[in-house]
Write a sequence for this structure.
């Protein structure tokens, strides 16, 4: 369960705290399936659970810049979208003291962007 609230006094220098973040979603097994087939598979068959982000934890202190590096499909953009509040996490905890901003095609997260 994600929590988006202010930080406690002992963590006031931390702007973003992520603990054991997990983001899962379902995809259709056959990408070429038409609308009719997709409606049939809504019952639960023909879909696969994808674990996009598993067990990610980190802190970002006020004024820090963060870069996320990884291969294609490793969950970088999904993780940043969850931290920015654009995607719901499947599990874990996200605490923010300020509302982060997700900017650009490169999924750049800037906590105090204006």
């Amino acid at each position: 369960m994600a929590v988006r609230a202010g930080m406690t006094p002992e963590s006031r220098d931390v702007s973003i705290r992520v603990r054991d973040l997990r983001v899962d979603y379902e995809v259709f097994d056959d990408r070429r399936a038409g609308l009719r087939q997709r409606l049939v598979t809504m019952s639960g068959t023909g879909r696969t659970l994808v674990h996009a982000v598993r067990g990610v934890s980190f802190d970002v202190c006020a004024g820090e810049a963060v870069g996320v590096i990884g291969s294609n499909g490793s969950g970088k953009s999904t993780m940043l979208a969850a931290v920015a509040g654009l995607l719901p996490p499947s599990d874990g905890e996200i605490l923010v003291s300020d509302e982060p901003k997700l900017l650009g095609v490169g999924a750049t997260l800037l906590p105090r962007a204006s």
Observations:
- The chain has one domain: 9-110.
- The longest strand covers residues 14-28.
- Strands lie at 14-28, 47-61, 91-96, 101-103, 108-110.
